[in-house]
Structures are given as structure tokens and as C-alpha cells.
Amino acid sequence: MAERAGIPVDYSNPGEINGRPVYPITAERISLGRAVGHDVRGSASAGPVEGTPGPGQSAMER
User: Fold this and answer.
1) Secondary structure (3-state) at 37
2) What residue segments make up the domains of the chain, in order of their start?
3) What SS3 class is residue 59?
4) pTM of the shown model
């Protein structure tokens, strides 16, 4: 999904979360309303990582 959003994925430096490979990403610019972040780091994987929320889901329980 990161690549579909135009965010490059660094496949040369894999890491691991819950036994699944993840790859570093850095978004040059992201925004939510008027809030803007630059050079925001994160990670991408080939699929959902077990134990983490999926797309559109929150880690916060209500």
C-alpha cells in the first residue's frame, strides 16, 4: 500500500515484527487537516502483521 501511495519502500534493509519481515519507509510529507508532517518514518510489510490493527482500524480500544 505504501508504494501505491507513492512512498518508496527500502527493501534492502528489512526488519522483523512478530516474525514477519517489515521494510522501512519515509514519507516526505503527510497531512491530516491542517497538520503537516515531513520525513515521517514508518514500516511496510507484504501483508498485515499479526497483533496489529489492519487498514482503517485503530489500536485504541473504546
Assistant:
1) strand
2) 1-46
3) coil
4) 0.69
Nearest by Cα to 50 from 9, 16, 22, 20: 20
12: region left, alpha or beta (phi > 0 left; psi from -120 to 50 alpha): alpha
What gap in Å lies between CA 44 and CA 26, rounded to an integer?
Answer: 10
> For residue 50, what are the CA distances in angstroms to 4, 6, 18, 28?
22, 25, 7, 27
Give residue 58's identity as a one-letter amino acid code.
Answer: S
Alpha helix segments (H runs only) across the chain: none
Q: How far is CA 37 from CA 2, 42, 53, in A?
A: 16, 12, 22
pLDDT in tens, 32-58: 999 999 999 999 988 766 777 766 666
- Strand 35-44 with 20-32, pairing: antiparallel
